Amino acid sequence: MIRLADVPCANAGVLEIVPAQFQSEYMQASAVVHGQTFSACWRKAGAMVHLVYEDGDQGLVPLTDLKAELQA
User: Which contacts (CB < 8 Å, 24+ apart) does range 37-43 have?
Assistant: First the structure.
């Protein structure tokens, strides 16, 4: 599961990886993989979302694969 937030990325570990000219475009994110939560940041890249994790891992997810989280 990936959660994208609409607030600027504040994760120093991720921002060190992202080139300075793009840092202001990245928003906060998190991902849960096999029960473990990872901090990340994201930005829209055409029809994709570019995710950068604090461990340096990166990935692209098609916008069509994302859906809004239902609020209880």
Answer: 39/11, 39/13, 39/14, 40/2, 40/11, 40/14, 41/9, 41/11, 41/14, 41/15, 42/4, 42/9
Q: Looking at the domain assignment, is residue 33 inside a domain?
A: yes
Amino acid at 36: Q
Q: Is residue 42 part of a domain?
A: yes
- Report the predicted TM-score, pTM, of the whole model to 2 decimal places: 0.86
Is residue 48, in this structure, part of any structural domain at all?
Answer: yes
pLDDT mean values, one per 10 residues, the chain (72 residues): 93 92 95 89 95 91 85 62
